[in-house]
Design brief:
Length: about 290
Amino acid sequence: MTGTVAAAGAAPTNGSQPFWRRAMGHRSFVFGGVLTLLLVLAAALSLVWTPWSPYEMNLPGKLQPPTAQHWLGTDAFGRDVASLLLVGARNSILVGVIAVSIGLIIGTALGLLASARRGWVEELIMRLSDFTFAFPAILSAIMMTAVFGAGIVNSIIAIGIFNIPTFARITRASANATWSREFVLAARACGKGPWSITMDHVLPNIMSVLTVQVTIRFAIAILAEAALSYLGLGTQPPQPSWGRMLAEAQTLLFQAPLLAVFPGVTIALAVLGLNLLGDGLRDLMDPRLARKR
């Protein structure tokens, strides 16, 4: 009996701990945060410094193995692989930030509108979301490429459009749950309108859900950009891209296998880090999930 009382009393103490203290004890959050921080630092470093110019070709020095001069070797055009990876991180983050922002802003607005108005407005928005789901990012990019030509801008638009219905559905579901809460009913009883309630009560209470989703969609955006670049639809030469590095390395697997290993491992670590970060955030923002594991 005493142990039960002590255990019951310990739960509020753990829940009342500062967020960062709990975060430092969460392995998924810490590991994912470290990998994500390394990705951001690599992109930031490429803005001011790279070992060699990623655009400078040196055909006599092509396909060199890792050396003191070229830490990760050179590619088929004699470009420094380490420099290409650093600048590729910057381009991946650029695509991810803009594409996820498009989905977040438009999708959240549509989800909040559907939840606040209900009726035919909600039905129309949800059916449009279903229609958009029929066109994945890669398929949308192929269609846009056929009309406007390949490029990073079309990739960003295609990935952004693909993110909109995801955020709209998650926002609507979370907002609907919040609309049934007592404090929202009290606000309605006080005469507050639907838009005032949405901005003052609903949106702040679903921000944690949206934050977790942003990290997950960011990982998917990086993966989609790499896939589009691999197909020749994304970032175009001479801008470095992890996906195009993989495409260029596939014909040289027996001559220089490391050319495929380095960008492949980089993509895997970037996506893993963001997914682990999102998983950790989900547990930290909803401790009930962590206790179920």
